Amino acid sequence: MSTKKLKHPGRRLLVALLVIVLGYVALAVGTATGRTQMTPGLALDLEGGTQIILTPTTSDGSEITDEDIEQAIAIIRQRVDATGVSEAQISRQGGNNIMVSLPGTPSEDTLDLVRTSAVLYFRPVIRILQMNAAAYADMQNEYADSVASAAATDGATETGVESGTGTDGTEEGTETDGDAASADATLAPVTAEEMATSLADVNGDGTISSDPLESTSDDNSSDAWISEQLIYDAYMTDCTSEDALSGEAQDPDAAVISCARNGSGTIYILGPAEIAGTNIAAASSGLETTSQGTTTNNWVVNLEFDSEGSDLFAEVSRRLIAYRDAAAAASDATSTDSQKAEFAIVLDGLTIMASGFNDTVTTAITDGRVQISGDFTQSEANTLANQLSFGSLPLSFTVQSEQHISATLGTEQLRNGLIAGLIGFALIVVYLAWQYRGLGVVAVASLLMAAAGTYLVIALLSWLMGYRLSLAGVAGLIIAIGITMDSFIVYFERVRDEVRNGRTLVVAVDEGWRHARRTIIVSDSVNLLAAVVLYFLAVGGVQGFAFTLGVTTVVDLAVIILFTHPMLVWILRFRFFGEGHRWSGLDPEHLGARSGAVYRGGAAASAVGAGGSLARRRAEARRAREQADAVEAEDASGKDDEQA
């Protein structure tokens, strides 16, 4: 049977080595620039991390069910996974509490995703206050002080000039003092409460009422949802304080006060919730694509609602566009239509963002697909997409405790695991030297290549996707040694079978590879399938084991194809292997070849008969020589007796 001979095996070996070298160079550059490190990140059991215990509550005081807890755990796990943190442990503790353990030192954004209960709603904007009453009062008082100071300076100057000219200074001085007193009375210092009362007194009667304002429409953007008291409370809210930015559960059926989550101090008065976070089908971040199909450098968030959310958003978008158009046509400077044209995304009582529709949007959005644009960085767009994707938990949470935890196993267990791996590797090297002799060099070189490739992949995954190595993952790496060895044995034994069938060594290697490759691919595919199934069905440490098992299986397949086979073809060019030296692992007696012609030198051909394997014929020839030597010895002994 003809085979396709591998051409230029040396080039393939060089390419494989070059890929490994470039990978380590990239890792070194990342380490030098502070973006990663040469060693992969370690999981909770080996490094420790941060532990947060959450206590759930419901906004309406209803009973918390097991289904609510399980759904909350699933959403928290989705949030953590979306940030790239792996090997996190999220479980139920002591009844209804949820314990979240994150390895290493997680970022503040990741901790916020866990801490916040993320009850997400879309609410209409009724009022936007750029600052609170205290800030307005400070501004007015500073202005009053500056006016008073300027008036005092002007009065002193006028008095000095009049005294010098001999005019009636007493009368002039009296008038100047009166003017200053009048200015002080006009710009008297005010308190935050007085300023809030002045700003919130819509009807100008001097009192703050709790009665709803006059209705402006029959929707959730109407002024009828708010009162002077609510406006007063909004002006008295400090949206830059830590307490105000901690977030809280709010009634979705009432108007509320919400602070800007970014700490800018902006205060929003929002109407009842129009759409819940549970109506979001998908959210993702990416670069903006214009209507002409071109891609810009602006990061946006693409949002898609489910069928119910699409119907609700169609009605909301129709109303907001009407407010926008009315604001553009209005000549009244006191109109609030421009503010009511905005829609707020509220997470745990804090406004993530508030935005209206671009001028290019002229009709209601009925397909449920929205693109949120702004001055987003990539990180901000990703964070917003994560908040929207996994933003609506069935419960609110209170952080009961947050603390750093130490490693449950630590570096000693990691060291023991690595020692076990090295012992296993050494035993395999001994076995290869005994079973395959010089051919074991190919296997050992391939094992070293697989080890270097696996370490590189694990380190790069730790950098690019936050993967962390657990002790279960180390077990997966150790098992991978056996998987890789299995591939070598299948290949080498298949070559032996081809040689036994009388093929030349070069053809036997290629033909053996053709048959062995099929077996190796099937075997690795089964291992990979098992790893994938185990990864998706398991959680925690078992997932880490499945992940490393899958990675090492892929690396094994790449090494056997790109390195082991080319190297075996390449070494046949050397006389030690190509002519079947007794220690090469390719000698005829070891392989049971039927013809010495399988070797390039053909030196063993003279010892070969017409049938049987070469090893058997050599044994028969050896026995024949022994018999001949015995007969010769007997003849010599007989002659000695006759002479005696």
Indicate the low-confidence ranges by residue numbers. 160-185, 600-614
Derived from helix and strand composition plus strand pairing, the structural class reads alpha+beta
**CATH class descriptor name of the domain at 9-41 and 410-573:** Mainly Alpha
CATH architecture of the domain at 9-41 and 410-573: Up-down Bundle
Q: Kindly report the name of the CATH homologous superfamily of the domain at 9-41 and 410-573.
A: Multidrug efflux transporter AcrB transmembrane domain
The major beta sheet can be summarized as:
5 strands, mixed, barrel
Count of DSSP E strands? 15
The CATH topology of the domain at 9-41 and 410-573 turns out to be Multidrug efflux transporter AcrB transmembrane fold
Write down the overall mean pLDDT.
78
Strand neighbour order, sheet with most strands:
5-7-6-12-11
Form type: elongated
Radius of gyration based on Cα positions: 41 Å
Share of helical residues = 40-55%
C-alpha end-to-end distance: 66 Å
Count of DSSP-assigned helices: 19
Protein architecture, described:
- The chain is of the alpha+beta class and 644 residues long.
- Among the domains are: 9-41 and 410-573, Multidrug efflux transporter AcrB transmembrane fold, CATH 1.20.1640; 49-111 and 401-405, Alpha-Beta Plaits (2-Layer Sandwich), CATH 3.30.70; 123-130 and 219-389, Gyrase A, domain 2, CATH 3.30.1360.
- It has helices at residues 9-32, 44-47, 66-82, 108-115, 133-165, 169-186, 192-200, 228-235, 307-329, 337-340, 378-389, 411-436, 440-465, 471-500, 505-537, 541-571, 575-578, 588-591, 614-643; strands spanning 41-42, 49-57, 89-93, 97-103, 120-129, 256-260, 267-270, 275-276, 280-289, 295-305, 343-347, 350-355, 369-376, 396-405, 468-469.
- The strands form four sheets. A five-stranded mixed beta barrel has the order 5-7-6-12-11. A four-stranded antiparallel sheet has the order 3-4-2-14.
- Strand 11 (343-347) and strand 12 (350-355) form a beta hairpin.
- The relative contact order is 0.11.
- Residues 160-185 and 600-614 have low confidence and may be disordered.
